[in-house]
UniProtKB/TrEMBL annotation:
Species name: Nocardia lasii
One matching Pfam family: TetR_N
Keyword Phosphoprotein among UniProt keywords: no
Keyword Metal-binding attached: no
Protein name as catalogued: TetR/AcrR family transcriptional regulator
HTH tetR-type domain boundaries: 22-82
Entry keyword set: DNA-binding
Ranges in a coiled coil: none
DNA-binding region per Swiss-Prot/TrEMBL record: 45-64
SUPFAM superfamilies with a match to the protein in the record: Homeodomain-like, Tetracyclin repressor-like, C-terminal domain
InterPro entries with a match to the protein in the record: Homeodomain-like_sf, HTH-type_TetR-like_transc_reg, HTH_TetR, Tet_transcr_reg_TetR-rel_C_sf
Length: 216
């Protein structure tokens, strides 16, 4: 007779210990994503997450050192979803840079609209927790800058604007897009998404026009 999964994390059916640990870890991350994205990181306890995940509390510490460690993992997975949405948008766009920018930004804002947990975790719950969490936040901004740099480099006059200078400008550009997204969320998505995308595209295109080679 096959034994059911127990509250202390034991599971039978022939699953290897490493597989069971990974399953528990996944359930904890899923439960924390809901908790941090709905109730907030500071309003959530390890006990609550373990209860939601159906994992004995002592098994929490086989995967995470503390709640901040779990927050970092939730944030990384949330940020990965945002980056993947942008990459998917770029794959679906044609070669025209304006179209690529619009499709990528539309995919980014669509995810924010479709899953309110994403902006709460990525924009608000992540801020001011600790220096380690702040570093993770800026690592994600750097990743977004990398995407922008790869997208616009073919259209930039690198003789006039060296890559190091362009990267600094793009860091500010990514920050501006994040602020637009934050304001949209704080306003409870009152502005139509098409208008938000238009505003973000205007900012990107203005920067691109300034960095591009002179014509005429």
């Amino acid at each position: 007779m096959t034994a059911p999964e127990l509250d202390d994390g034991r599971r039978y059916r022939g699953a290897a210990p490493g597989q069971r640990q990974q399953e528990r870890r996944t359930r904890l991350i899923d439960a924390a994503t809901d908790a941090f994205g709905i109730d907030g990181y500071r309003n959530t306890t390890v006990t609550t997450i373990c209860a939601t995940a159906g994992v004995g509390k002592r098994y929490f510490y086989e995967s995470f050192s503390d709640s901040e460690d779990l927050l970092l993992e939730v944030y990384r997975e949330t940020a990965a979803r945002m980056i993947e949405a942008i990459h998917t948008g770029l794959r679906d766009a044609d070669a025209d840079v304006d179209q690529q920018v619009r499709v990528a930004l539309t995919a980014y804002f669509q995810l924010i609209l479709d899953d309110p947990r994403v902006p709460r975790i990525a924009f608000f719950e992540i801020l001011g927790v600790s220096p380690a969490v702040d570093r993770a936040y800026y690592d994600v901004l750097d990743a977004l800058v990398d995407i922008c740099l790869a997208l616009i480099t073919p259209h930039v006059d690198l003789e006039t604007h060296p890559t190091v200078s362009v990267r600094t400008v793009l860091f500010g550009l990514v920050g501006a897009i994040v602020i637009i997204a934050q304001k949209w969320v704080l306003d409870d998505y009152h502005q139509p998404m098409t208008d938000v995308v238009d505003s973000a595209c205007l900012v990107v295109n203005a920067v691109l026009a300034k960095l591009g080679p002179e014509t005429g």
